[in-house]
Amino acid sequence: MNTHNTQSEEALLIKAVRPIGFGPVSNALNGCIDVLIGRNGQVIRTAAEIRPEKDVEVINGNRCWLSPGWTDLHTHIWYGGTDISIRPEICGLSRGVTTLVDAGSAGEANFHGLRELIIEHASEDIFAFLNLGSIGLVACNRVSELTGLASVDIDRIAATVEANRDLIVGLKVRASGTITAGWDIAPVKLAKKLGRILKLPVMVHVGEPLPLYDDVLKTLGEGDIITHCFNGKIGGSILEDEELYRLVEESQQRGVVMDVGHGGASFSFEVARAALSNKLLPDTISTDIHKRSMPGSVWDMSTTMSKLLSLGMPLEDVIRASSTRPREVIRRPYPAMLEQGARANFTLFELNDSDLIVRDSKGVPSALKQVFDPRFTVLGAQHWTASRYQPAEHAPRCTCGGHV
């Protein structure tokens, strides 16, 4: 290290942005602020106006919003390791997302590849849920990762978790009849037992029964996650069954996390609109983005956030469910992010009026009233230009067999 470096300690200055999603700090800071970031990637200070020193790079926010970095809790980015995963740079920093969480693409047999070939080379912060099935989603929906107990190696799962606790944030199980056939609720119970032993939460994909959505909820506890909470599948929709709807409310009240997990077959405008109208808000907003869902109905994180906003979810709640709350769920909470010494992790975005036509996973169209337009992402002392995904005019619908 050069101890005689006379360069300024300042590296980046974000000018004229409106903070949102930082809790009470956002309310205390009226109007626009500037944020000064050091060469070590830490916030030096915030103020109504900061004059940069020489050679400091400046981002002109032009009164756009500044939020904690967006976190996508459900992605598939084990590119080359599964037949559905995409490269993290496609759905990460270039789309306003600073943290990506892979939701079970890898099992214990191939997690080392996800770590060494993807995570360690990515610019994004990446964490992962480890699939209960040893092979993960190598051939998603073509070769089930959970055909029976022979698909699960408990000792190797424990060893993999212990060797990778810096990255593994939970266990993932797809509780769907199309995956587990007649195994019913057993994989969820096994995952929950392992989660208790390893002190990790469990993320459960709910879909086509069996098991029943009801039984999954009864098995999970505080900190565990239901992903695809607003799916519209027969036998799995919370609109079809008043008892199930009440159970969802009760489960959320006792700490079960309700995650959107849009995906190619797992998000219904009708279900989400009804839930939001009854004040049942998702705890986290995520995309379940992968090679099949992205060009169909998902597109990206900002579009998924825009859908929830358009359906009536309050702006502050959308931001929290897309940034700070997911980080809490994976037990990697953001610090007081605008305070001196905090690592810079921000998304700069505009919220623009729109009449963009989007679709849910069932192909139902809806016009958005406003869209989130990411402009920059900031991670440490570096920044990236960001934008929304622009699909082809007639992007093909997802044809993923209805299971993801």
Automatic annotation (TrEMBL):
- Where does the chain bind Zn(2+) 1? 74, 76, 172, 288
Site for Transition state stabilizer, residues: 174
Which PANTHER family does the entry mention? DIHYDROOROTASE-RELATED (PTHR42717), IMIDAZOLONEPROPIONASE AND RELATED AMIDOHYDROLASES (PTHR42717:SF1)
Listed A to Z, the keywords are:
Hydrolase, Metal-binding, Zinc
Residue sites binding Zn(2+) 2 per the record: 172, 205, 228
Q: Give the source's domain of life in one word.
A: Bacteria
Which SUPFAM superfamilies does this entry report, sorted A to Z? Composite domain of metallo-dependent hydrolases, Metallo-dependent hydrolases
Alphabetically, the GO molecular function entries are: deacetylase activity; hydrolase activity, acting on carbon-nitrogen (but not peptide) bonds; metal ion binding
Q: What name does this protein carry? A: Amidohydrolase/deacetylase family metallohydrolase
Q: Which residues carry this modification: N6-carboxylysine?
A: 172
